[in-house]
Amino acid sequence: MEEIKLNGNFAVKVGQVWAIKVYDSIELHDYPKALVSFTDALALSEKTGGKVVMFKPVEISDEKIEELKLAAEMKNE
What we know:
alpha+beta, 5 strands, globular
């Protein structure tokens, strides 16, 4: 069985945006800005009515890395 890590692979999606706790407030963003522990994500989802989403690490191929490098260079021009 695959091991599930509880310490930082989670985010909270509220509708079409992502929630993150910043100090004593909650901010919404177009994409997840940070991954948090399961317990933090669960607490945030209960406050916002959002859904907990688990992210799994995915290895990126060398070809995809080269594509991402090119895209990053184009963005900086």
